[in-house]
Amino acid sequence: MKNTILTLCIMVLISCKDNRKEVQDTILLTEAEQSGTISESEKKKPLSPHTSTMVMIGDAHIHIDYSSPGVRDRIIFGGLVGYNIVWQAGAHNATWIETNKDLIFAGEVLPAGKYGFFTIPSKGDWTVMINKNWDQHGKDHYDEKDDMIRFKVTPTISEDIQEHLEYKITKISDKLGVISMHWEKVKIELPFTIK
Q: 3-state class of 8 per DSSP?
């Protein structure tokens, strides 16, 4: 019975796109569990942990919720995350952003509310989309018609590797802030103003 369940789990994982490395890691993890060479704390550690960041800037509360995949010796941008296609800017469910105040990004107003956060990575400038449909798995139901705002950003490239995807919200003043997303060698920064 245990082997049947294990086989079914592996088949489901194999059927998912872009999960080859996770399947390999899952098989190795399962083999290690069966041989008894893995601790209880290691068994429970997710490959893409769910996390969030939030900050108060003036009277604006801004919250970002995402799953944080690791690099794990993979080529991320232009590899696992393809160029010139929509990415949910995290793992599993779409990354979402919530604000209780209107925010202005690149001259465009994002009304207070809860939104999906998507990007289109490229070798040059990236496109950032903040979309009405925040509650979806990955980018399965992404529709450009639901974009509230869409703008371009220029990424910075580092020699250092950021192992796990990380979002930060930095307060500049009571009216200004910056959202940053950093993973692998790539970082994008999204300055905003509180309306």
A: helix
DSSP class of 139:
T
Q: Kind and range of the H or E element at 152? A: strand 147-153
Residue ranges in the chain modelled with pLDDT below 70: 1-44
The side-by-side arrangement of strands in the sheet containing 113-120 is 50-57, 60-67, 95-99, 113-120, 126-131, 147-153
Tell me whether residue 128 is exposed, middle or buried, using C-beta atoms within 10 angstroms of its C-beta: 0 to 12, 13 to 18, 19 or more: buried
46: exposed, middle or buried (Cβ count in 10 Å: 0-12, 13-18, 19+): exposed
CA distances from 57 to 101, 104, 108, 144, 194 (A): 10, 14, 19, 29, 8
3-state secondary structure at position 134: coil
Q: Tell me the per-residue pLDDT of 45-73, one tens digit each, with 9 for 90 and over.
A: 788 999 999 999 999 999 999 999 999 99
> What pLDDT does 86 receive?
97
Contact 151, 108 (CB under 8 A): yes
Q: How far apart are CA 28 and CA 44, in angstroms?
A: 14
Q: Which residue, chain included where needed, has tokens 């956060």?
A: 117
What's the pLDDT score for residue 100?
98
User: How much is the pLDDT for 45?
Assistant: 75
